Amino acid sequence: MYKHFFKRVFDFIAALIGLTLLSPIFIVVVIGLYFVNQGKPFFFQARPGKGGNIFRIVKFKTMNDKIDSEGNLLSDAERLTSIGAFVRKTSLDEIPQLINVLKGDMSLIGPRPLLPQYLPLYNAEQQRRHEVKPGITGWAQVNGRNAISWKKKFELDVYYVDNLSFVLDIKIFFLTIKKVFVREGVNQAGQATTEPFRGNN
């Protein structure tokens, strides 16, 4: 009953309340990123949701679009702005995804939506992460986030799919608040962003 009905109700109400309470912070971050990113405070990207269906995720744009002399984008570390780095460390870049939750593309809690190009790289067990809606935070995020291996991350995602419950969601919610304050596992050691998934070989 929780999985098929109440979870969506709670998601909608919590996302609406969250956007309302966080609106002052939302506005300040939008203004800051508007100036450092040449009028582009938001970042839109295609992501696979439940069943692998593609939707457009919205996040704050934490990296600029600077290119080298040959027209290629600079590395992530070079494009990460000072404001963007702060927004990432404090997890404020996740706030716009509350809009995706209101629309029904995402849940507050579930496996993080990854890139579409990863879809053919998953094995059958890893594909199971798409049996539920993706979330803003999840079991993998409170157990290491980007600091753990892809293999471990997918194992934690599938664990969540098999054990989804109100109690587990509440546990993840409060652990997420703790992680935000201690700022653990935002990136892999020595990386501005996590390494891309290259398959299981």
From TrEMBL:
UniProt entry tagged with the keyword Transmembrane helix: yes
Report the transmembrane regions from the record: 12-36
Query: Does the keyword Transmembrane helix feature in the UniProt annotation?
Result: yes
Q: Which UniProt keywords apply?
A: Membrane, Transferase, Transmembrane, Transmembrane helix
* Matches recorded under InterPro entries: Bact_transf
What would be an example GO MF term here? phosphotransferase activity, for other substituted phosphate groups
All copies of domain Bacterial sugar transferase, residue ranges: 7-181
A Pfam family annotated for this chain is: Bac_transf
Family assignment from sequence similarity? Belongs to the bacterial sugar transferase family.
Protein name per the record: Lipid carrier--UDP-N-acetylgalactosaminyltransferase
